[in-house]
Predict the 3D structure of the following.
Amino acid sequence: MSTFGFGKRLVESADGVWITTRDGERILDFTGAVGVLNHGHNHPRILAARKRFNDLHRMEVHKAFFSPYVAALSHNVAEVLPGDLNISYFPNSGAEANEGAVKLAYKYHEGKRNTILRSDISFHGKLLATGSLTGSRENSFEFPGIPNVSYPFGDVEAVRELVATHRRADGTSDVYAILVEPFSASTMRHWSEEDLRALRALCTAEDIVLIFDEIYTGWGKTGSLFYFMRHEGLVPDILTYSKSFGGGKASISGYTVREPLFRQAYDRLGDVILHTTTYYGFGEETATAIEAVNIVVEEDFPRRAREIEAVLGTGLERLQKEFPDTITRVTGTGSLFGVFLDSGPAILNMAARLAPSGFAKDPKFRTKLVTSAVISELYREHGILTYFSPNGDTPLVVAPSLVVGREEIEQFLDALGKTLAKGLPRLLAKFVKDRVRAQW
């Protein structure tokens, strides 16, 4: 944070897509808080729902009493999801949701299968299990984890080959689950409809649990309620989600499983406490999520995302044509785009060699430096907050909340154009100079 000056300032308040600092500056937030703020900062309906809950002195959590909030939330989620995705569990974070999904898949096969497949660029969390299932470059240190096999993202033929080679002595599959991000928010890559349907058919034929991770991309962000739902009739066995599920105010996630799989895995008295947490179904969190889902549906967030894409996507493509030597490509959907920048002038080769050892060994050091210079300029000169993804090809991520207006999108596009017009050498020189000055 100190690299960009973010961590040296205090925030006084935030509303919609705007942040007001303690010293009175207004900052346009184009990060969407990395997927958390589809509803924007402090959505009035979310605040009102939480106030009602507290004004009525509702019970937060108690193991001895049935929670109407958990029941209502599970019911509502089942109503908006396709097929028989209708039994949900609500932990606190996306990593916990993925962990719970993987546990259920393993239990579904009663521990008789030992292999789980995940992609080479995956991001599923930073717990021991989910961290070991994550292929992101953020994993710079190897912690213990669960056995897994990596497949190339989007390559269904490679998945087929791995399933074929992982068989038990009786010829049946040893793969208990395949973990898939239909749209990878950290790399801006996506699976084709044809290959997702092929994955579904493969998992059905081999009785493998198909898990879709839509932690970031869920609840309207990509122009459909969930990215996979743009493909009619396609249904995973388990869906995981989090981020904006809590309306930007509650720490809550979820995984929803097809009923037959849940019954097979846990629907016995002796198994019901195999996966529990202290704060599961926390009252205010589930009440908040109920309202968050209501807003997504009633205010048609998927439509909003498509409208944002029409302005933002077109604007970014225009800038790519205007600065072809700086922007190598633009890709994305809905309110989630990546701007991939050139790795900069050749002089950066020397900078990379002179950098501290940890940075010098990073193959994306140059790209990160260039993207950081753009982020810094947008923040310091235009009061716009952005970020880059350290995974994949390290794009500048443009992902505003779904409450953003056309005028604010145009303001961002104008600022990005003025920033790129200064040229990478000038931006880099300024960025490095500011960093040196900050050190002294």
Notes: The mean pLDDT is 92. Residues 301-322 form the longest helix (22 residues).
